[in-house]
Amino acid sequence: MSIDETLVRAVAHPLRMQALAILNERSASPKELGAELDAPVANVSYHVHELEKMELIELVDERKRGGAVEHFYRTTARPLMSGRAWERLSLEERHEASASIIQMLLADASRALAAGLFDARSNRHLSRVRMVVDEEGWRQLVAIQDAALEAILEVRAASVERLGDAGAERGFPAIAGLTCFELPAKRRSA
């Protein structure tokens, strides 16, 4: 099974997708994920086990807590899908995945605004371009976003390499979000 096919199965459930997004950023236990996602630990544990069976996450640490052992996981592959993988999702699955990603982006932006960091750098980027396009223009927009995503992933990999083991101390967290979507047509007033 290709990584795209595996990711299609992974995003079939919103809780699984949210857990995967968190585990792409840091290691966490099902207990921690449950607390962060406001979900029962038993449900989270089931979805973590499913992600592990799909080989999208791996066990990275075990810590004794009282009489139990808490397991910590992290992603093994980048949880991103190509356009073709998105096309294989049902409309409902695409909607659930999109809603989860948008909620995460809004939460990240809210945290940055509240901390005074969203506008702290004068060289950050924020844009919104409303337009009318034809099918060819739409394909071009998607291709531009796909190319930008690949470039962003290259920047992330190069930063990890430059920062090395001191990454958390020398670097700082950042988000790069990309989207393009169709809007409903404006109603003309009579």
The CATH superfamily of the largest domain is known as Winged helix-like DNA-binding domain superfamily/Winged helix DNA-binding domain
What is the alpha-carbon Rg in Å? 19 Å
- DSSP strand (E) fraction? 5-15%
Tally of discrete structural domains: 2
Topology as a string of helices (H) and strands (E): HHHHEEHHHH
CATH architecture level-2 label of the largest domain? Orthogonal Bundle
Sum up the overall morphology in one term: globular
Low-confidence stretches: none
* Number of contiguous helices: 8
Helix content: 40-55%
**Given the helix and strand composition, which structural class is it?**
mainly alpha
Instruction: Please state the average pLDDT score.
Output: 83
End-to-end separation: 54 Å
How would the blueprint of this fold be written?
Elements: H1 3-10, H2 14-25, H3 30-37, H4 41-53, E1 57-65, E2 68-75, H5 83-88, H6 91-114, H7 135-163, H8 167-170
Antiparallel strand pairs: 1-2
Helix pairs in contact: 2-4, 3-4
Structure summary:
By secondary structure, this protein is mainly alpha-helical.
Key traits:
single chain, mainly alpha, Arc Repressor Mutant, subunit A, 2 domains, two-stranded antiparallel sheet, 2 strands, 55% helix, globular
Q: Overview of this structure, please?
A:
- The protein has 190 residues and is mainly alpha-helical.
- The protein folds into 2 domains: 3-117, Arc Repressor Mutant, subunit A, CATH 1.10.10.10; 125-183.
- The chain is built from 8 helices and 2 strands.
- The chain has a two-stranded antiparallel ribbon with strand order 1-2.
- Strand 1 and strand 2 (68-75) form a beta hairpin.
- Helix 2 crosses helix 4 and helix 3 (30-37) crosses helix 4.
- The mean pLDDT is 83.
